[in-house]
Amino acid sequence: MLKVERLGVRYGGITALREVSIEVQQGETVLLVGSNGAGKSSLINAVIGLVPAASGSIRFEGQDLAKLACPARARMGIGYSPEGRRIFRSLSVTENVLSSTLGVPQAKARENLAWMQQVFPLLSERGDQPANQLSGGQQQVVALARAVSTLPKLLLLDEPFLGLAPVWIGRISEAIRELQRRGTTILMTEQMARPALKLADRAYVMRSGEVRRSGTVDEIRELALAEEYL
Predict the structure, then answer these.
(1) Exposed site from 156, 197, 200, 205, fewest CB < 10 Å?
(2) Above pLDDT 70, what percent of the chain?
(3) Burial of residue 91, with CB atoms counted within 10 A of its CB: 0-12 exposed, 13-18 middle, 19 or more buried
């Protein structure tokens, strides 16, 4: 579904990614693991179109994304939940979730919302509440629901467990499992590799803007422990 080949990303004179190649097959959950500054978010941002590729290619379902802006990539079926949640603090929970459904028929958007309210009961319980009154874990639920409000084919999750208490890591993990049961393909980044590895099929270990290891979760778990990624 997603194929990244020899991708390079630069910020001014700084190289963030160097010759990075990964693949994500339909129905898989693939993890990018590594320390802060490893290049994980730069890769996610390049896929969604927030940063340009300096070299290499990104293909989604066989189509080159190079000339497509973020909205066009979203319309193709790519959803994105950014690091740090970045919810609209002045909007209600429901308004936050529906904010990503521009261009989706209203009936379909409401149908998707009803499904998400079953998966995330918080959306019903706090639907009219301003998002800035929620805890960090609750805000992460809203951010995740907003990312899947159009039921994307590919969901990009950037550090979904960042700053969360263990109870909320468990709840977000269960929500991700529900999306997996629905057949959503997921590419996620995470520094907290231990809970993330429980959700993934395969993983890429990144360091200094390069992929250093790749393989199944079992293979990567041993390598990650040996190299003190966890």
Answers:
(1) 197
(2) 96
(3) middle
Q: Give residue limits of the domains in the chain.
A: 2-86+151-226
Residue 148 φ then ψ, to 5°: -105, 10
The predicted model scores a pTM of: 0.89
Q: Is 127 helix (H, G, I), strand (E, B) or coil?
A: coil
Compute the distance between CA of residue 89 and CA of residue 198 in angstroms, rounded to an integer. 31
152 neighbors 165 (Cβ within 8 angstroms): no
Give the whole-number percent of the chain exceeding pLDDT 90: 50
Whether the CB-CB separation of 142 and 87 falls below 8 Å is answered with yes
Q: Please tell me the CATH code under which domain 2-86+151-226 is placed.
A: 3.40.50.300
CA distance 198 to 148: 21
Q: Which residue has the higher pLDDT, 9 or 108?
A: 9
